[in-house]
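<derive_structure_tokens>
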Amino acid sequence: MRQPLRYPWFNLDVDDPSAPAIAVRVDVPETRAEVPAHRHRKGQLVFALGGGVTCRVPSGLWMVPPHCGVWIPGDMEHSNVATANARIFFVYVEPGAADLPCRCCTLSISPLLRELIIELSDGEQDDEARDGLLIRTLLTELPRMPVQRLHLPISVEPRLRRIAEALAQDPADRSTLAEWANRVALSESSLARLVVKETGLSFGRWRQQLHLIVAIRELASGASVQQVSGDLGYGSVTAFITMFKKALGKPPAKYLGSITQNGGSAFVA
């Protein structure tokens, strides 16, 4: 069950034009929480210090593991789902205040930027000069963060979106390409070509990308490798670890450890 995700105070205007950047900390309760589809003028960085967040935009699904962030340009419709007990931060940036991408992307978060975000999210700060310096430093550092490729491309093509939604609801579904093709009234070869055309990935690689996103999200929220392996429909833990290591170069524990230690330098190729 998902609960609505609430800001720590009710009178927050994230589009306040007088503020070049606004940082907000949100602590998620013991159940998953969601911000339904919405948009705002300011761009938004979604940053997870603990737990995981999944961002959905019209063109894809973006995972926010600990110590990484997803940049969402202003006026782009999006929704956010956070794992239970997550500690997340939203940073809203005024258009033109920093040289940031005009597309949605995953960013590494350096230790310096992390501390700037945490400090600015403290609503009790009342030193305007100091806050201004912190904001200027944040807006200087944020464009310097490396871009990762940690997302699932989702096409607006209705048949692929239907498959993506079904797999997101039940990632353990091991239906073959032929079975999916039958469900969406296409031949197997036509569906295979459509997936490559719309996503740039084969069907198997596309589904694997979804599994990696779900796995990282669940592992980051504290689930065991055994639990995640079962939830994704793998016949054994070994098979899951082999897939994970082949895709990311490291087994699950080492991968998550590298994200924590290096500020999110690992990525999905």
